[in-house]
Amino acid sequence: MNRLGIPWREWEPALQVLRSLRNLQVDGLMSHFSVAESERPDDLGFTEEQSQRFQACVDSARRMGMQPRYLHLANSAAIALQEPARFNLVRAGLMLYGSHPAPALQRRVSLRPLLRWKTAILSLKRVPAGDPVSYGRTYSCKRNP
User: Fold this and answer.
1) ∠104-105-111 over CA atoms, to 5°?
2) Cβ neighbours for 92, distance < 8 A, ≥ 6 positions apart
3) Are 33 and 47 in contact (CB under 8 A)?
């Protein structure tokens, strides 16, 4: 989603750095889907691509000698719609607050909203041209930073 963390394109060099930190033990790896709630064919393909990228990152970490015990990819929508992405942890974000991330979830889970959100900007990032940003891939960067 191009928010926090290590971009998948930078994972291999990041692993080299992580491996060099002798006092660091990696107990878990996680990522986040941007359109797991969508049933559009191109979004389903993108979600599958994200799953494959995450699995490739996990495999790379294991080849480097890391044994992450916790693997986490499924958000609220993926809990209900993307069973293979559940691994051994899930994050029921929006669902915990009574919000459906997708119409498909309304047919599967009964929820009721329970709060309102207010926030401030946490960080700004440079994102390469063509990369989608945030939920729903609603914006793709037009140019390189």
Assistant:
1) 145
2) 76, 79
3) yes
Distance spanning both ends of the chain, measured CA to CA: 17
Q: What is the DSSP letter of 70?
A: E
Question: The pTM is what?
Answer: 0.74
Question: What amino acid is encoded at 14 in this protein?
Answer: A
Measured in whole angstroms, the distance separating CA 126 from the mean position of its chain's CA atoms is: 18
Eight-class DSSP state of 31: -
Give the 3-state DSSP-derived string for 85-143, with helices as H, strands as E and coil as C. Answer: HHCCEECCHHHHCCCCCCHHHHCCCCCCCCCCCCCCCCCCCCCCCCCEECHHHCEECCC
Does domain 27-107 fall under CATH 2.140.10.30? My reply is no
**pLDDT tens digit sequence for 61-120:** 999 999 999 999 999 888 888 888 889 999 888 888 888 888 778 888 888 888 777 899
The domain limits of the chain are 27-107
